[in-house]
Amino acid sequence: MYSVTRGLQPQYSTVFVFVVTILHKQYIIMSSYKLTYFNVTGLGEPIRFLLSYLNIDFEDVRFELEQWPSIKRSK
């Protein structure tokens, strides 16, 4: 397996990973996320929790069960 930090001393490896992480965060193109799910605690709730915990902006679209047939037809 190829290692990016192969041959570097441990302290330089840590600095390398830190610098690459900082550069990645500065130049990353942020996507906008939209979570569409029922207005219940279900499979969507862990995703909502994770996005909120990571401070990722997302559009939280919740709908009631009665609205599902019309939403399904429109997709």
The CATH class assignment of the largest domain is Alpha Beta
- By DSSP (H or I, 4+ residues per run), the number of helices equals 3
**Which CATH architecture of the largest domain is right?**
3-Layer(aba) Sandwich
Question: How widely separated are the two ends?
Answer: 44 Å
The CATH topology name of the largest domain reads Glutaredoxin
Overall SS class: alpha+beta
Tally of individual domains? 2
Question: What is the fourth-level CATH superfamily of the largest domain?
Answer: Glutaredoxin
| Overall spatial form | flat
Low-confidence stretches: 15-20
What spatial order of strands do you see in the largest sheet?
Answer: 1-2
H/E series, N to C?
HEHEH
Q: What's the story with the biggest beta sheet?
A: 2 strands, parallel
- Write down how many β-strands occur, each being a DSSP E stretch of 2 or more residues: 2
User: What Rg do the Cα atoms give?
Assistant: 20 Å
Residue share in β-strands: 15-25%
Domain GST N-terminal: 31-75
InterPro entries: Glutathione_S-Trfase_N, Thioredoxin-like_sf
Protein name: Glutathione S-transferase-like isoform X2
Organism: Sipha flava (yellow sugarcane aphid)
Overview of this structure, please?
This protein is α+β, with helices and mostly antiparallel strands. The protein has two domains: 1-30, no CATH class; 31-75, Glutaredoxin, CATH 3.40.30. Helix content is 47%, strand content 16%. It has helices spanning 10-27, 44-53, 68-74; strands at 33-38, 58-63. Strands 1-2 form a two-stranded parallel sheet. Helix 2 (44-53) links the parallel strand 1 and strand 2 (58-63). The relative contact order is 0.13.
